[in-house]
Every structure is written in structure tokens, then in C-alpha cells.
Amino acid sequence: MRLLIKKPDTNNIIDLIRRCGYSYRGRQGEEMMFVRRVEISEYPRFHIYLKEEGDGFILNLHLDQKWASYAGNRAHSGEHEGELIEKEAERVKEIIL
Predict the structure, then answer these.
(1) Fewer beta carbons within 10 angstroms: which end of the chain, N or C?
(2) Residue 6 belongs to what domain range?
């Protein structure tokens, strides 16, 4: 799911996403990566890719169901839509807006 958000008053977008319960995982190119576990185990977990664009940010949210099940590939089984993702997107928007 893709969300467009205005740049917040704070200069630290990482801290803002952390307030939503996400851990910062680093950068991949121009995007910052964040994750939040759904349960105590590593998976499933929500995954956010955040990219600055113009006067705001593009936030791409999906749900990682599991790690890649075949060797040599970093791809994973992820969901980009559905009720769980919609609820998480609303929760994040309420916190950061």
C-alpha cells in the first residue's frame, strides 16, 4: 500500500516512524527501511520503504509473511493489500499526521 505524507514539522523522519513502533533497518538506495513485528516471532512483520519526494514522503507499506524459502534469493512472500494492511496504514497515519 502506498501512502503520501507531507513533510512533518520535525526534521527527524526516522524518529517519527519509530513512534509508530517501527525499527530503522538502514537504507536501500534512496529509500529508508523500517520493520515492525506483528507477533513476537520475526515473521510476519510490517515493512515500510520511505522515500523523500518533493515536499513530502512516499511510504510503501507491505506485510512480509516469511523469509525467502529458496537459496540465493532475498525476495520474500509479501502482501501489499488487505484488511490488515489497511488497518496498519490507518494506525500509522493517525500517529504521524
Answers:
(1) C
(2) 2-96
